[in-house]
Amino acid sequence: METPGLVVQGEAASFSTALRSLLNNPQYSDVCFVVGQERQEVFAHRCLLACRCNFFRGLLGPKLGPGMPSPVVLSTVPAEAFLAVLEFLYTNSVRLHRHSVLEVLTAAVEYGLEELRELCLEFVVKVMDVEMVCEALQVAVTFGLGALQERCVAFIEAHSREALRTRGFLELSAPALLPLLRSDRLCVDEAELVLAARSWARVGATCFLKLSLQIPDTQSKSSCLLIFPNSAPIVFLIHVGAPARNLHLRLALFLCITAASCGFHLLRD
């Protein structure tokens, strides 16, 4: 009876280097992508992409006929991020950069590359700073990355004043803004928060935001901020005691419905 063979490992580094040489190399490639707004051509190999990623397997399908097929246009992913994805698929490693890691993370989520997604998440947590955190929060909310969302909110709570002044804060979507406005740990007073919401509304208040209301027993009053289209925010103060919480909830829900039907934007209660 023949004994089973023994699997031995060659040097991984030389294998990775050889595959890296094929990255975006027109020689021997059989698929061309046109990526990003800059419409940069990127060359790749169908068999490698298909065996490494279900997204590309479905996108490319079987090769039909001789020669190079028509370019595949991927206009929403920047070229640098797409090349990082290909680097990971070819070598199972990737060099990440602070300025582009969120775009690589977005591509990893969209292409179903869980291992690359986790590598990006670890890197984001390591390099997170005030200028980056709101953009990271937006990505987390968009793709349901709960752990990253919690990290971002905690970071903003610890660096509230600086974070609320960034361009990233002004560009948050309404669902991404909600966990910040509901937080009781922001290191700013109510007036500063209202001013930040006013600035946000002037830049990006384009949709109605539903609220889940929580009113502590010790809170004697609450403010409800309504953003009217093309005008300055108007603050309504609703004075209620703890026994009136149910009444307050019904009133707030009424305000939500009214605001939605009239095109207002309810930001905070």
Automatic annotation (TrEMBL):
Pfam families: BACK, BTB. This is BTB domain containing 19. Residues 29-98 form the BTB domain. InterPro entries: BACK (IPR011705), BTB/POZ_dom (IPR000210), BTBD19 (IPR042846), SKP1/BTB/POZ_sf (IPR011333). Gene3D superfamilies: 1.25.40.420, Potassium Channel Kv1.1, Chain A.
